[in-house]
Every structure is written in structure tokens, then in C-alpha cells.
Amino acid sequence: MSDQEDILATAAGWLAEGETVALATVVETWGSSPRPAGSRLAVTASGRMAGSVSGGCIEGAVADVAKQTMASGTPQLLDFGVSDERAWEVGLACGGKLKVFVEKVA
To answer: Looking at beta carbons, which pairs linking 16-22 to residues 24 or more positions away fall under 8 Å?
Structure first.
């Protein structure tokens, strides 16, 4: 089983336990991005996390958006890049760009 399959299995297990779950997936990268496209992070409303979309540098920001997405049910596409002020705030100063799609898992 690949790491990404493990993330999906973990998310499914949390759903089975009654948790509300969001899944964040790297959908596009450019330049020196910390994780490749297809990388995933599962987040629960109670704060559990599994996987990674950034090697840690934007995980907190993605987790915050995941909580908003769980509450609203509306998927979001996040865009982080070196020219983005928020990228510097969250530690993405490596010169790359990435897009992360965040969706509530039902």
C-alpha cells in the first residue's frame, strides 16, 4: 500500500469512527515545491492529521482552511507561491508554487 493509499485508508477509518474529515490534495506544482502533485493531507474537525502537502511549511494554513471547508461543505483551491505574501508567512520561501485542493469527505 502506498503512502497516499494509507492516507485515504486513515481518512476512511476516521469517517467510520464518526469524525468529520477533509482531504487536501496537491493538484499542481511549479519549481521547487516541497511535495509532488498527488500528495495528500487528511484533517478531522477534532484536529487529527495524517499525511503531508508541504513537508510542514504550509500544513497549518491548509489545516485551518480544511476546518472551514468541513464547516461550510464548500471545496476550496489554495494557491501558494514565492510571490504570495502568505507563502512567506507560512514558510514557503523555497521558490516554488503549489496548488492544494481541499474538500470535505462524505
So the answer is: 19/44, 19/45, 19/46, 19/48, 20/44, 20/45, 20/70, 20/104, 21/45, 21/70, 21/104, 21/105, 22/66, 22/67, 22/69, 22/70, 22/102, 22/103, 22/104, 22/105
Q: How far apart are CA 95 and CA 29, in angstroms?
A: 11
Query: Rounded to two decimals, what is the model's pTM?
Result: 0.84
Each residue's pLDDT tens digit, 54-92? 866 688 899 999 999 999 999 999 998 755 555 555 555
C-alpha cell at 36: 509532488
Domain boundaries, the chain: 3-105
Q: Which three cell numbers stand for residue 64?
A: 485551518
Residues 88-105: pLDDT tens digits?
Answer: 555 555 567 889 999 999
Cα 5 from Cα 78, distance rounded (Å) = 23
